[in-house]
Design a protein that fits this description.
With 234 residues, the chain is an alpha+beta fold. Helix content is 56%, strand content 12%. The protein has helices at residues 26-33, 61-72, 79-103, 106-127, 133-144, 146-149, 163-179, 185-203, 208-220; strands spanning 6-12, 15-21, 36-43, 53-59. The N and C termini lie far apart (49 Å).
Length: 234
Amino acid sequence: MGVKEWLWTASGEGFCLFHAADTRGRVELETMLGKEFAGVLSSDDFSVYNGVKVAAQQKCLAHLRRHFKKVLVLPGNDNAAVAQIFLSLIDEAFIAHEFWRKTKDRLTYDLWATDFKIRLNQALTTWLNLVGYTAGLLLKSLRDKAEQWWYFLCAPSVPPDNNLAERSLRLAVTKRKVSGGSRSMQGFEETANLLSVIQTCRFQARSVMAFFREAISAHSCDLAMPELVPIFQT
């Protein structure tokens, strides 16, 4: 029999780290990031990320969009109307951020963001007390955790989604579909380490096989091991 598997990933510019675990709890997050994290944590809206001590958070708007798509087909309570309004706002945000990525026109982006926040708050004020339970939970989250859902409005260098992590996990999903899960936690941990090397090499546009050859040669000859930690210019 296999083991219960939860594969965590921390992905960023030039690196990808997988962490093998048998839980999806806060302890695993702290194992990867520590009890405090000085960077921006981009994630889905899973509850384990709530309350974690970080410099800032950006929850994934793609996940939020999926939630509103489900509200769109719910009967009654103006669900279709409110869902369509917020789906349009989310789509607009993606388009505006994509335009900034292509042009780096910060003035235009900031002007849009200021107007967008006004219209977003107006929509929340209008609909919050009119919708049903499911839509109400989403709107309360947008109100109470606004700094986590919309952080990218003031820091466009932060993506409004966690697509990088999602793309990283596809490698692990493909591996599991082809060869199945691990039969032991040790095997799972070794798989996570191997996937970390493969995906990091891909992010750095390096040959995976060349890296392994270099690493094996360095180990056999007692030489310095090749590095995968990205070096950033300051």
